[in-house]
Write a structure and sequence with these properties.
With 305 residues, this protein is an all-alpha fold. The protein has one domain (7-194, 206-299). The protein has 13 helices and no strands. The radius of gyration is 20 Å and the shape is globular.
Length: 305
């Protein structure tokens, strides 16, 4: 008997699409080449406009009600998303990019621990194995660019990883409530706080920079992060964080393809390990779910849609 996609499978597809959509992030940041304070300002302002446009298109006259439904938890989500933005950008400013990505790869482990402690969500053994394998694969991808770096930069990167994991975990405290509209507030907060980082003069982006900013911040990031932020509606926080690692793999390929920065052989092995782990884990869970559905069918219970 053929079944429609389950809620979990829909969550996997939607959440995995998010990192793939935002995967040109690192490439476009290189092409834009703005100081961090200006990049944060335009990133915050344009993403806020993009996120708000998505909310209006999805909700129409219910837009304000959608924001109100998020409540105080939504304010927490907005604050954590803001911290993760600052942590990522400032981490790259003060330490090696490889260090930042390696620390961010620990977000699934942090999310699993936070979910276990605060939400009492137990992760199956296969999830813990996948976390270890993906962390190892990401380490191989960034091995050549990793180093001691700066403790300040490493601290900002850790802040980004903690904020990201805490964001997804906090979303799980309000089952069925879509927190993605609160990313509008997060974008505005980033834009308002970014001038405090300004050093030197301020210049408007040129035509090429403006085009890349619009593509990245007005289109790709709002669409991609809306999908990622909806992930906790369907999946545990640790699994959402795991799927987020797809951006590291595909982002490396974008930079190689368009800028000619060929990854090392270790990076290819690491990317294959991350992708292979996520695919195998999904196939195993698909098989387990189909077995569970057949059991329900045999017992006369309708399967979950």
């Amino acid at each position: 008997m053929t079944h429609a996609l389950s809620r979990r499978q829909k969550g996997l597809l939607l959440t995995a699409a998010g990192p793939l959509i935002i995967s040109p992030d690192a490439l476009l940041i290189k092409l834009i080449d703005l100081p961090d304070s200006q990049m944060l300002f335009w990133r915050g302002l344009l993403t806020a406009i993009g996120f708000f446009t998505i909310v209006v298109l999805r909700s129409g006259r219910r837009t304000w009600a959608v924001f109100r439904r998020c409540g105080l938890v939504g304010l927490g989500v907005a604050g954590l998303f803001t911290l993760s933005n600052f942590g990522f950008v400032l981490g790259n400013h003060y330490t090696k990019g490889g260090n930042v990505l390696m620390i961010l790869a620990g977000a699934p482990l942090i999310a699993a621990l936070l979910s276990r402690f605060f939400l009492h969500e137990r992760q199956p053994l296969r999830t813990w194995i996948a976390i270890v394998l993906c962390l190892s694969g990401t380490s191989l991808i960034v091995f050549d660019d990793a180093g001691a770096g700066s403790w300040i930069g490493n601290g900002f990167a850790l802040l980004a990883a903690l904020s990201l994991a805490a964001n997804f975990t906090l979303c799980r405290t309000r089952p069925g409530v879509d927190m993605s509209p609160m990313l509008v507030l997060a974008g505005l907060t980033v834009a308002l706080l970014s001038p405090w980082l300004a050093s030197g003069g301020w210049a408007l982006p040129d035509a090429d920079q403006a085009r890349y900013l619009i593509l990245l911040c007005l289109i790709l990031i709002p669409i991609g992060f809306t999908l990622i932020q909806r992930g906790p509606l369907y999946l545990p926080a640790a699994e959402v964080s795991l799927l987020f690692l797809l951006e590291t793999v595909t982002g490396t390929l974008w930079v190689w393809w368009l800028l000619g920065e060929r990854p090392s052989n270790l990076a290819f092995i690491g990317g294959a390990l991350v992708i292979g782990t996520l695919v195998i884990k999904s196939l195993i869970e698909r098989r387990l779910e189909m077995r569970w559905r057949r059991t329900l069918d045999n017992q006369g219970f309708p399967p979950e849609a």
